[in-house]
Amino acid sequence: MYLITMRPQQIQDAVRRNLPALFCAGSVEYHGPHLPVGTDFLIAESLLTEIEKKCECVVAPSIPFSSTMGWAGGPEEGDVDFDPDAFYVYAKAELKGLMNMGFRRIYVLQFHQGADGLPCLTLKRAAAACIREAAKNWGNGWGRKDPSRLPNPDVFSWIRVVSNLDEFSRYPDGDAERISLGHGGKGETQLVMARHEDTVRMEALHELEKLPQWLEDAWEADRKEGEKWLAFCVEGWVRELSGDIFNK
């Protein structure tokens, strides 16, 4: 279910049944001449689209922009270095809105710069602020109360901010092949191919006299391999979202 197409009664029913709510955040950033500037956003949204088909959840509107710091390119190449302060305010407002609706299992996929990147840290800050404000309303000593009588007994897991597509995936063993996700390289290129192949122009790589190191393996991208990894990641997320975190 998608939040923006749901009626009030459907939202109330989803909250009553403790369905998870999730949204993603990406970036508008140069990923090489062969990929769209919304690569991170498109990959993250593709994952959520497939998740929604396979398990009951509520997908809230995504956030396409985040800080890029001009790492890969400039505005003339479509790069938008979004102000992290503005990002924080917007993200906090969306998270608070979902909390106020009654959702108690909120997941955010920030697919840009990794767990220690500025966008993910900003989102975690917004999540922490929302949780703190909610807990402050419960009065002092709320940790000594019966957890079942709190608005959310699992307050510290109320909002999960993750940066990896395979966050909840199970690899066969320690030596198993891992998903490749270098910036604009093979991994991201084939994931875009998996659902947005029409936006990819591999021949455009010839426009560069010398490929930066992070693009050198882009030629190895394969659409079918991208579909395989997308399905693998979806499986992990579905397993996570289908469980009730309060009864694990």
From TrEMBL:
GO terms for biological process: riboflavin biosynthetic process. InterPro entries: Creatininase-like_sf (IPR024087), Creatininase/forma_Hydrolase (IPR003785). Keywords: Hydrolase, Metal-binding, Zinc. Its cofactor is Zn(2+). It comes from the Bacteria. The keyword Hydrolase applies. Belongs to the creatininase superfamily. The keyword Metal-binding applies. GO terms for molecular function: hydrolase activity, acting on carbon-nitrogen (but not peptide) bonds, in linear amides; metal ion binding. This is Creatininase family protein. It holds the Pfam family Creatininase.
